[in-house]
């Protein structure tokens, strides 16, 4: 599809049905489906539909170019970890309960830590796009820098924050990002 992010930076989870959609449409539809599948009676969010919805978000990182390549790789890795967890656990609460019980919540590679990092990735993109869409005057660099400072910077070392700041200069222009996202309106 013209305007969509290239397949080289798309998610390995990409569903054939979502192939013809813009990245934003695919994400929106995946999360709407997640909302419909959520069992409100038990208030438990199932792991597999959550992972499916999150998998579509990886392409949004790819649309942001080289500056977010590491974030995309990290995000996909954590979503893959949760995909593996879906073979053992039905819902997100079970993952958290198991990791708390086994005292591995803070252990690198634990399912709960992967969940936390996926959530940070979701929060980063949500915050960035909220700011980006709030005004036509805000550039992707401004929106991404502000979102990073709010969401991720508090968890990163000075060296990582410095590298991220340098990488922000490589973000696409507003028009180029909208083209990559497939927004031709």
TrEMBL record:
<dbReference type="GO" id="GO:1902388">
    <property type="term" value="F:ceramide 1-phosphate transfer activity"/>
</dbReference>
<dbReference type="InterPro" id="IPR014830">
    <property type="entry name" value="Glycolipid_transfer_prot_dom"/>
</dbReference>
<feature type="domain" description="Glycolipid transfer protein">
    <location>
        <begin position="46"/>
        <end position="182"/>
    </location>
</feature>
<keyword id="KW-0813">Transport</keyword>
<dbReference type="GO" id="GO:0016020">
    <property type="term" value="C:membrane"/>
</dbReference>
<dbReference type="Pfam" id="PF08718">
    <property type="entry name" value="GLTP"/>
</dbReference>
<comment type="similarity">
    <text>Belongs to the GLTP family.</text>
</comment>
<dbReference type="GO" id="GO:1902387">
    <property type="term" value="F:ceramide 1-phosphate binding"/>
</dbReference>
<protein>
    <recommendedName>
        <fullName>Glycolipid transfer protein domain-containing protein</fullName>
    </recommendedName>
</protein>
<dbReference type="InterPro" id="IPR036497">
    <property type="entry name" value="GLTP_sf"/>
</dbReference>
<dbReference type="GO" id="GO:0005829">
    <property type="term" value="C:cytosol"/>
</dbReference>
